[in-house]
Amino acid sequence: MMRYKGMRAGIALLAVAALSLAGCGSSGNSGDGGDGGSGSGTSTSGGAGQSTAGGGGDSGSSAITVAAQAWMVEKFHMNDMVDKFEADHPGKTVKIVQYPDNQSLANFSLQWSQGKADQDLVVVDGASVAVQFLAKNMIVDFNKTDFFTGDTAKDKFVGETLKFDSLDGVQFAIPIGLETYNISANKTFFDKAGLLDADGNIPAPATWDDLYDMAAKMTVRENGKVTQPGMTIQWGTNAVSTMISVEQAVRGSFYDDDGVLTFDTPEMRKVLEVWKKGVDDGTFSIDTFSNKDAGRSNFNAGNVPMVLETAAHVPEAAPTIGKDNSVVLAMPGSSENGSYGFTAGIIMPSASKNQDLAIQFVQDAMMSDIQVAIGEEWGKLPVIKKYFDQIDAPWKTAMYDLVKISQPAPMYRGLPEIQDRGKQLLQQYLTGQVTLDAFLTDFGQVIDKADKAAK
To answer: Which runs of consecutive H residues, i.e. helices, occur in 3-130?
Structure first.
């Protein structure tokens, strides 16, 4: 049983801090949610801050503060990590505080840029959003610390996992929870609709027209009203992540010839037309517009045949819909071109005075065997090889095969703005408020104006 040690006090203090910094960032919804002494920053060089870790700069520290979103506290078993660490290190304490979402990360920038930090570690949803802190060396480059030693040496990590959290040789975050976007499918619905092949498997759709046809056959209507959509697609908070994953799959890239993010391509236009058709006739649900967790909740409850977002919902739903019924279904093109691959990222402010203890917490608790339980329960795969190998489930291979050929989100400082505005524009298009051309033009302008620098 996880316990929320010091949570109420931490949340209250964080709220006060967030209000005092509200002028520095927007407060939209984002993501798949510090308290402590402030201190002066350390000297920095290169693309991220130079850490004191390993140099004994905070050898007397006895407490650290870790900021995370609410879902992370639950799904990463963070209070179990705290319990483990405090039991193994008597006299050391770890306080977890919550922050609302990715949009609110901008609230940390003002304090960190002034050489102060109320947080010693921050867990971010999708490591690419941490790129905004590379400017002015606000976060530590873990390559300049003693982190990659012993059980957390680089060769102990799964495959190319560390690359999801690095840029130009700077390891700006430590990954946790390896995931990719794809379709989570419930075979029960496919069986009832006669859509299984001779071996009892779901045939992978070759095109989005094929996928629409499958979803349409499983859509239930009563008296002209849809009572069960055939599919839910993540068009809420993480809508742009969905668009990135789908375009990577159907086109093999989400960049134009100049290396800039684009969705105005023939392949993506075709997908968007199919999406609009599915929304118009009720085959595709728009529940995620108002509740980003609607697709996940309905899939886990056995109420919808398919959901397109993180494929981690396959193991998450298995206890309720049956482990043999909950499967990863490759969306069109993903088996060849991959999708959107990502991890959450653990970042450390350069201004933290407690870097040695913070790194020890990441090494001893966050990179511990607790990752096995996180993977088995929530489908967020371990990033450490020996714990990854302990996951014994058919979905693991399918998911990891996709992760290996998937791509991270663009490493843009302005990515949070692109995500927030892109969601709004997509929803306007899907509900018929604007044409496809207008949507792509407007979204292209958002991308053009966004800060695409990484440092």
So the answer is: 7-20, 70-75, 78-88, 106-113
